[in-house]
Specification:
The chain is built from 12 helices and no strands. The termini are far apart. This is Chemotaxis protein. It comes from Shewanella japonica.
């Protein structure tokens, strides 16, 4: 299997390098703007989350692979052996999809959920009997992984740990894994809804350029490390359910290895042929390199034009925004003048009414203070004169 795995790794590296080259050549101008604008680096807590998730993945791989191999080596049942291979293949692929999300928060929440889903699947879920009498090995491994993740996750945010744990328990109960393919969807959006957090608030940056490059390096390293193993397990799984046995595969690999050795010996014995071959390759590859250089120049020119167009659009939008703000300010000033004028009129109207009321009350006060006693005196005088005249007449 060593020669086959080495060949698979070389092909994978070539494909990945080709994809990276294509992405660089055909990358959009928005990426160019972001790289030059200086994005905000990730907070320290999110960097720690990313480091923990990546470190946890290696513990996960070791725990799953050792437990699955322990079950497979202790049984002759083809169905159980097949289940151990599927456990290793699909659990590790699902974990990679969980931890390789752009946001460290999303990766950590989704990894936590997947770990609990696998634990629930083997303990009380649909997979509680997939390994027969060896089921306890898978249960113990899943419980150890679940406990290890929860213990470390608790240290990141102690105050919200119980709330996050409650969400994980509810989500796992509503979204159990149904088979060994571990088909599932990310739980991050449900977590945002559960926590009443907007996606724009939860994800404010994807990190600085060195952090993004480090993330891509981790992804490449892990993919390069895990892909040969996964391909080998898939080959074993295929061999279990086909007429091809391990001896046939080993013989074919041995033949390929012997042929490669003979070819290398032939090349060493004919250096002139190698020199001619190198010259021919140089001649044939020169047009391709020139075409690649031309395509690169075209793409760079296109990126420059798109960046200039984007800058022009931003300038026009900024001018429109300034004009809109000026118009709104002028309208607000006019509304304020009209409101002030109306307020002054109301104030003067109220003052006029108040002055009139004061004058009326003042006149009534004067009448009460000055004229009332005088009228009372005149009335009393007349009354006394009338009484006196009546007395004289009676006498």
């Amino acid at each position: 299997m060593n020669a086959w795995e080495s060949s698979a790794v070389n092909r994978l590296v070539q494909v990945l390098l080709l994809l990276v080259s294509v992405n660089v050549l055909t990358g959009c101008s928005l990426l160019e703007v972001k790289l030059e604008s200086g994005v905000e680096p990730l907070p320290k807590e999110q960097i720690n989350m990313r480091m923990f998730s990546r470190e946890y993945s290696y513990n996960f791989y070791t725990e799953v692979e050792s437990s699955a191999d322990l079950i497979a080596n202790d049984t002759d049942d083809v169905a159980i052996k097949s289940n151990t291979l599927m456990w290793k293949i699909y659990s590790e692929q699902s974990l990679q999809r969980a931890i390789f999300q752009a946001s460290p928060i999303a990766a950590m929440i989704d990894t936590w959920v997947f770990t609990e889903q696998m634990n629930h699947y083997f303990t009380t879920g649909a997979g509680r009997e997939v390994f027969g009498e060896h089921q306890h090995i898978a249960i113990e491994a899943s419980q150890r992984l679940s406990a290890r993740f929860a213990k470390t996750a608790k240290g990141f945010n102690v105050s919200n740990f119980k709330q996050h744990q409650k969400f994980v328990e509810q989500y796992v109960a509503k979204n159990p894994i149904s088979d060994l393919t571990f088909s599932r969807t990310s739980a991050f959006n449900d977590w945002l809804e559960f926590s009443n957090i907007s996606e724009f608030e939860a994800i404010t940056t994807f990190g600085s350029m060195p952090e993004v490059m480090s993330d891509m390096s981790d992804r490449m390293a892990m993919t390069t490390q895990q892909m040969p193993k996964i391909l080998g397990w898939k080959a074993e799984l295929y061999a279990l359910h086909s007429d091809v046995n391990a001896a046939d595969v080993e013989k074919a690999l041995t033949d390929i290895s012997q042929t490669t050795v003979k070819f290398q010996a032939l090349m060493e014995q004919t250096p002139e042929l190698m020199t001619q071959l190198a010259a021919d390759m140089r001649t044939e590859l020169s047009p391709l390199i020139e075409q690649l250089s031309q395509v690169t120049d075209d793409k760079l020119m296109q990126l420059s034009k798109e960046r200039a167009s984007l800058a022009l659009i931003i300038t026009h939008e900024r001018e429109a925004l300034v004009q809109m703000i000026a118009d709104e300010r002028a309208a607000a000033v006019q509304d304020l003048d009209a409101l002030s004028h109306k307020t002054v009129e109301l104030v003067f109207q109220q003052i006029t009414e108040t002055i009139k009321s004061v004058i009326v009350y003042f006149i009534l006060f004067l009448i009460t203070v000055f004229f009332a006693p005088l009228g009372l005196g005149v009335w009393l005088g007349k009354r006394m004169t009338t009484n006196k005249n009546n007395s004289v007449v009676n006498n």
